[in-house]
Amino acid sequence: MSGDHSHNEDQIDCGSRVNDSHKHKDKYKEKEHKHKDHKKDKERDRSKHGNSDHKHKDKEREKDKMKHKDGSADKYKDKHKEKRKEEKIKLEDGKVKKENGFASPQHVKSEPEDDFYLPPKHEKSLKRERDDDVDYDIKPKKIKTQNDKKPKKRKLEEDTKSKKTKNKKGEVTEGKKKAKNEPEDKWKWWEEERYTDGVKWKFLEHKGPVFAPQYEPLPSHVKFYYDGKPMKLSPEAEEVATFFAKMLDHEYTTKDIFRKNFFKDWRKEMSTDEKAKITDLKKCNFTEMSEYFKAQSEARKAMSKEEKLKIKAENERILQEYGFCIMDNHKERIANFRIEPPGLFRGRGDHPKMGMLKRRIRPQDIIINCSKDSKYPEPPPGTKWKEVRHDNKVTWLVSWTENIQGSIKYIMLNPSSRIKGEKDWQKYETARRLKKCVDRIRNQYREDFKSKEMKIRQRAVALYFIDKLALRAGNEKEEGETADTVGCCSLRVEHINLHPENEGQEYVVEFDFLGKDSIRYYNKVPVEKRVFKNLQLFMENKEPDDDLFDRLNTSILNKHLQELMDGLTAKVFRTYNASITLQQQLKELTNADENVPAKILSYNRANRAVAILCNHQRAPPKTFEKSMQNLQTKIDAKRDQLSDARRELKSAKADAKIRKDEKSRKAVETKKKAVQRIEEQLMKLEVQATDREENKQIALGTSKLNYLDPRISVAWCKKNGIPVEKIYNKTQREKFAWAIDMADEDYEF
DNA sequence: GTATGTGACTCAGAAATTTGTAC
DNA sequence: CGTACAAATTTCTGAGTCACATA
Questions:
Q1: CA of A39: nucleotide with nearest C1'
Q2: Rounded CA gap, A411 and A399, in Å?
Q3: A374: pLDDT strictly greater than 50
Q4: Looking at the 3D structure of chain A, how many domains does it have?
Q5: Are A460 and A608 members of one domain?
Q6: Considering chain A, what is the average pLDDT of its residues?
Q7: Closest amino acid to nucleotide B3 (CA–C1')
Q8: CATH number at residue A374
Q9: In the annotation, is A707 catalytic?
Q10: Which of A164, A378, A388, A578 is deepest in the core (most CB within 10 A)?
Q11: Which domain range does residue A254 map to?
Q12: Protein A155 CA to nucleic acid B19 C1', in Å?
């Protein structure tokens, strides 16, 4: 979870901001202030005219007709300019060093051929495509009994037969996979009617959250030292100290912001005496504590089988008790029924709050959501919930407010649940509706490149980026509260470079910014001339840290999109472009004559094209080089084996020619088979190596799980005779059960 | 009306854990 | 059989998107 990206060569190491130790003071006031100024400035700018184009020999005269910014920097930004400048320098440093940075290859955009205009019809209607008249009986009380038999089923889904064979015995050990599992008819919620009125459920019953285990004080021989001298800490202070100790090996315990935030919060937990004594984090020695935890984890690994099984069984029991809820007659799996334990906050990237104490959540922090007529979850003895409410317009079971950002956290259902699945399905249906009108929308925004109104031009260019490059919308963020990252609408001038000519291409825009999770987006793309000219215009008289699209935000953009198509938002473009790219790449890359591994390589490559489009990166696995080497060793061995086998085949053939008897002919056949088998194995290994190498820094999971209409993949499997297990593991098959059930091989996104 | 804040939900990669496999 | 290690899967929780409430 933590964002230690420093080991990723190709990502910018934003490093810690060394000199901003005072930054957080009064941030609230400051922030508010900033924002006001900002808005005012935008307002003011709007009323001004572009009379300040000095030096501009720009031929595009029409821009004179347009209002545009006078180049004064927004005040709120001025305040932060210094900081950003510093960062920028760092960024550039990084850039230089990391010239080999990840560059998203050209987006292979498939243009859907059909383009008929469909009036934005209301689609909130949760109409399902196939209507089975399965009645949706809502009889809350019944549910339980009805579901009593289900407990068993859910946990250990019958898996592929291959797995079963492993479990040959079929013993019913608790926490073990049961071998035989009555196929138990699974609930096909996708064949049922959906709620249409914002109601999410009629009945909801659950057992509440599982709290983090209580803190166990350290044994007395494990000491903390201050200024070289052992010091016994109060339990409160000690607990927080252990959080730090457990992270000692991690890089961010060396970062200034992390240390400063930690120390500040730690001191809050200290007794008066401790507070007086412990004044310098540098004098704190946690190593003995750290060693102790390492030893503990070693001990855990070395536990006997029985002990391990016992723990497993206990976890299973908790899962059975708390891991499921009953929603509308069905037992459903809960995603995160365990409350986040206390610890030190680790933001991603250069987060101003890293190191802060994430406090322990108690029952009185918890809001329970369930139906009135359900059996309410019990708070632990002697405690009370903050509130029990019955809001069936939301999907969460439990919520609490987290203390770092003040945001709300939720316990919700598993992706395999009806409530998540329906929404997921709907998402792809919206994307498919976009497919039907995307040409109209593209023509529209290309027209808008020429608009007289600056606002509309900016909107058009932003939309062009979102569509062409699958950028995220880019909401504004509160400065100082989070890492400095941007999306499309929040791009700043410093994030792009314009090259009228670059490497033989015209009108190239070079993007370099940190996006979600502080993942670097670096890309050079040729754009339409009009886009290029517009960008020049938008950047006129601006400072590097001014907004590129100063007249635009996500709200304006999404309002516009909503008018173009019902349910259309910026992120629908990402879904649409991801899915259509997969479909088109699969078509292009799959060769019907190839064998299964080769086809799967094609699938992975199609998946990879999408991951690259969406900029889904990962840090190369620590063991990457080594594992490639191992694989290469295997390949070499296999090659040797192959040439041996071939040699043997040859001699067998020669032998058979001379002897001409049945036996030697048989021997030839055997050898031939052997050669073939080895060839196949070698091929498989080579494919694997290719796949792995190409995947070094690319994360396929996110797109597979969140952007690719699963029906495309299912259809591809069916058409190519690939078992769906080859591309979706068990969890994924559960999540996409609806798609696996409904898509046939002719499915078209 | 607009700007801002809030809530609910999706999506994100790393870390932890489990499983598979070669010896 | 165990053992060691790598690969696969699951868990974790932070970071976005976006609608809507509120001032």
A1: B3
A2: 6
A3: yes
A4: 4
A5: no
A6: 79
A7: A39
A8: 2.170.11.10
A9: yes
A10: A578
A11: 224-306
A12: 18
